[in-house]
Design a protein that fits this description.
Helix content: 25-40%
Bound molecules: flavin-adenine dinucleotide
Largest sheet: 8 strands, antiparallel
Shape: globular
Strand content: 15-25%
CATH architecture of the domain at 92-204: 2-Layer Sandwich
Distance between the termini: 53 Å
CATH class of the domain at 92-204: Alpha Beta
Number of helices: 13
Structural class: alpha+beta
Number of strands: 19
CATH topology of the domain at 92-204: Uridine Diphospho-n-acetylenolpyruvylglucosamine Reductase, domain 3
Radius of gyration: 22 Å
């Protein structure tokens, strides 16, 4: 421990030569904010986290937290106060008897946790991008592998260890500190504490990963998307269904944007995967597909590599998302498809992409946890570019396509949102009320930063509802 600072890790201040590295070096999005904290603590262990909170209390500082640094809007970088960087809290242990894995919040879900579990014949439905930290991912709900079949990743959190606003270390699960356990599954970047360890339920690894991909021209978007809206309820819940608009390298050496319909079957064997993926071959536009890959054997490693290509590190990103809601009738589907189409067909950036993810059939009641807003389909749109001069053009485009989707939008998912630009509902109203009560009792002095938003008084409301009410 450094006797001057009292920390085993480093306390970095703005006059240090590596200040900017400590402030934003671990932020994934190359579009870094100018916001300036008073200090950054690169915590070495849980004791450092406790001492950091106590130091902040002594100095009257607010505390921000970083686990993996993947929040698109760099939520960890706030003006003023102490940023506690948990990057070194990434150790993992596994209990063979219970099948429960315990991991530090900076553990990279795909790159580290997934291979660790694979070696032990186990699987956790973590996030798709290998480098996302489990900390921010799980706190906001966690849209992990095959969420439509297995539920939100946060549903597999059995307990959390938390450093509270008083600098105490407590264990929270369904028997003790139940308010923190409830909030840790959905509060996202307004959790009133610092999670220093997650305890997660794992499942046996699947026997065969089947991957179907159809590539369609963008002019077939409406027909293919309408079919998918009608078909996704019927497809086995062992299959993750994602449609994506993205540039695709073609066998002739060229590359162009296509609309891909993909199914990943987590099955016992090839025959089961083939049966689960068979409905994709009923798409009425299949004869016009640029290419069809039917139930090819795949691996998690292959998907991780693909995600890294899709999400290049250090590029600049602007993202937004929406829970899409509408009637499951031909008219309702046509309306949803019309309102989301520009997200998929007009992205102004070469590397930009958009996803539509099935969450149907929503047959499960969510457990009692803070996360509480979902519909049968989720869309998210990403502009990806390198030149900061393109910012305004891309921002304007995203604003306009999300506005176009507004008539079929129920709210947003914290994971792809940026509330400094657009504030929507992300939690059921009753859960929102309950969360405010947990925050008031656990963090009465406001030690931890709340949601980074344009208007802190208009949180968890769709902005057009406020405008309509004339508030
Ligand atoms: C390339 C990429 C791919 C993604 N793919 C997915 C995906 O497949 N599914 C999905 O659901 N999301 C996905 N996301 C979104 C991602 O899950 C969120 O941005 C998440 O917040 C990242 O977690 P993190 O710990 O890496 O981020 P951080 O930026 O470190 O954390 C975000 C915020 O969460 C809070 N927080 C984090 N850790 C703690 C903690 N231990 N205790 C208390 N508060 C904490 C803090 O407020 C912090 O500022 C993706 C993001 C990127 C960049």
């Amino acid at each position: 421990m450094n006797p001057e600072t009292g920390f085993s890790g480093r306390l970095v201040v703005p006059t240090d030569p590596d200040w900017d590295e400590a402030r934003v070096g671990r932020v994934f999005n190359g579009r870094r904010p100018d916001r300036q904290p008073d200090a950054v603590l690169m915590a070495a262990d849980v004791d450092d986290v406790r001492r950091g909170v106590l130091l902040a209390k002594e100095r009257g500082w607010t505390v921000a937290v970083r686990s993996g640094g993947h929040a698109w809007a760099a939520w960890s970088v706030r003006d003023g106060g102490l940023l506690i960087d948990l990057g070194r809290l990434d150790d993992i242990s596994y209990d063979e008897e219970t099948g429960i894995v315990s991991a530090g919040p900076a553990t990279k879900g795909g790159e580290v946790l997934s291979p660790f579990l694979e070696e032990r014949g186990r699987f956790f439905n973590g996030g798709h991008c290998p480098s996302v930290g489990i900390g921010g991912f799980l706190l906001q709900g966690g849209q992990g592998w095959n969420q439509r079949g297995w539920g939100w990743a946060a549903e597999s959190v059995v307990a959390v260890d938390v450093v509270t606003a008083d600098g105490e270390l407590v264990h929270a699960d369904e028997r003790e500190n139940t308010d923190l356990y409830w909030a840790a599954r959905g509060a996202g970047p307004s959790f009133p504490g610092i999670v220093v360890r997650f305890h997660l339920r794992t499942r046996p690894i699947f026997g065969f990963l089947g991957h179907t991909v159809h590539g369609y021209e963008l002019e077939d978007f409406a027909e293919v998307m309408s079919w998918l809206y009608e078909a996704h309820h019927r497809i086995s819940t062992d299959v993750e269904i994602v449609a994506i608009s993205t540039p695709v390298p073609l066998p002739d050496g060229t590359e162009r944007r296509l609309f891909l319909v993909t199914g990943v079957a987590f099955s016992a064997d090839r025959a089961e995967a083939q049966e689960a993926l068979a409905p994709f071959n009923e798409c009425p536009a299949i004869d016009r597909a640029v290419f069809v890959q039917d139930c090819r054997e795949s691996s998690l490693a292959e998907h991780r590599a693909q995600q890294e290509i899709q999400n290049p590190e250090h590029a600049q990103y602007i993202t937004d998302c929406a829970w899409i809601d509408g009637e499951n009738t031909p008219e309702g589907i046509a309306r949803m498809v019309e309102h989301i189409a520009p997200l998929f067909t007009t992205n102004p950036t070469h590397k930009g992409f958009a996803i539509w993810m099935s969450n149907a059939p929503m047959r499960r009641d969510l457990p009692d946890m803070a996360f509480s807003l979902q519909t049968e389909a989720y869309v998210a749109s990403y502009t990806v570019y390198d030149d900061p001069a393109d910012y305004q053009r891309n921002r304007d485009w995203l604003t306009s396509v999300m506005e176009h989707a507004q008539p079929v939008t129920a709210g947003q998912y914290l994971g792809d949102s940026d509330m400094t630009h657009r504030q929507l509902r992300f939690m059921a109203p009753e859960n929102w009320e309950r969360l405010q009560a947990v925050i008031a009792s656990r963090d009465p002095e406001g030690r931890f930063h709340r949601y980074l938003a344009r208007d802190a008084d208009a949180l968890n409301v769709n902005h057009w509802e406020i405008e309509k009410a004339g508030i």
